[in-house]
Amino acid sequence: MSSPQSLCFLLVGLVWASWVLLPKFQAWRSHAAMLNAIPTVGPTGLLSGCIGTYRFFTNAREILQEGYEKAILQYPNRIFKIALMDRWVIIATGRMLVQDLMKAPDNELSMIDAAAETLQVEYTLSKAVVVHPYHVSIVRTPMTRNIATRFAEVRDEIVSAFTDHIPPPDDWVKVPAYKVSFQIVGRTVNRFFVGLPLCRNSDWLELNTNFAVEVFISAMIINLFPAFLKPIAGRFLTRMPSSMKRATQHLAPIIEERLAKEYEYGTKDWPEKPNDLISWLLDEAQDEQRTVSDLVTRILAIEVAAIHTTAFCNALYQLAAHPEVVAPLREEIEAVVEESGWTKEAVSKMRKLDSFLKETLRFSGGGGLVNNRKVLKDFTFSDGTTVPAGVTIGVAAYMHHHDEAQYDNPYTFDAFRFYNMRNREGESIKHQTISPALDYITFGNGRHACPGRFFAVYEIKGLIAHILMSYDVKLENDGVVPPYEWHGPSMDPSSTGEVLFRKRRPS
């Protein structure tokens, strides 16, 4: 090859490098500089992702607590990062940064993409759930709108479930709190979602209540692998395919019957159409979404979010640990029910009970990370800190809720903390369990606050109210709540703790 030709190829190569490689190199350097400016908690170096993922899986509380305390006392910008297998997780602390996350547009910070990554939805549920998440609007509108209409059925299932699982004993009996919470919450939720008789089918309930746990466990397993191995891990190392098949056996006949009714009457509004989750989904589903497999997936996706056993179990432990709150709670419930019956309106008036539940969620709920967002574009916080695209941002909920900057005596359980706040002038409608705030992030914040929180709160308050009216409860170990269990960044109530029940006796 002649020298002119060599020179020509060299010049072309240099031009190509300047146009293609140089911008990529500059982008990489900018990305690295932004990450390097954020303090790291946990391992760093060549194997940081592998070691960090393992440590976060086994010691998330210690890592988050260390980072949170350093962010407050040492770090200038109140954020820190943790290395996982194939990504960085950024932890933001304090109200100002929580507000920044709340206000950020979806094309910069995406909640849906973060949830899909955290739960590995493509492998634990279906990619369609992320691409076309129309089921979220079902939870936000028809589901919430029908709480009052269907509350009598929910109340009926609460009474029936407690009678079946804890027949009111004359003397104290030990009840495995976590197991019974699953059974009772599962039945109550499914009465609202799929109705009788499926809500009492033992195989459906066993599948349904365990499916939520399987999703989280499967996601944690899949997240231990790099991206190219995730499909294999999802297929062979989890029980998701067999669980989907089992759910289809229960739901397919119901869905097919509903579709046949639509065809028979030529309309979606056929006579005596059930008012439940299956109908609400069919009302909104379009074309390829109106299939058994797609509808089964979405029903299970909603069930995963709705089987909030941990919240009820935590409330049960706290109720048993604090006998001093029983009399004022009972007095309020009896007065409200006498006036309004067992209705959604009545539950809305139970302000002391609402405060008790919110304090339970603040004190012993929320787990490690909430408000998770995937960074789609480089994002700058209001304090000037910039985080690069590709990372995930979250807020350490447990640490946030136990921060003295947010609450007085944060490590003290004060059942009527929020009731007293609501009694201040001009704050009557504030500080409710369903109301997100910069200091209360259990359900997220802003337009992406959990749409199912309304049903969850009314259901759990209904469950606790029934216990107070029907039983006496206590803990055997001098009122000490059994130790919490951390699974990765999730904090759960004790799975082995017991609560003593007996039929309520006159005060």
Automatic annotation (TrEMBL):
It comes from the Eukaryota. The keyword Signal applies. Transmembrane segments: none annotated. Residues 1-17 form the signal peptide. InterPro entries: Cyt_P450, Cyt_P450_CS, Cyt_P450_E_grp-IV, Cyt_P450_sf. The keyword Signal applies. Keywords: Heme, Iron, Metal-binding, Monooxygenase, Oxidoreductase, Signal. This is Cytochrome P450.
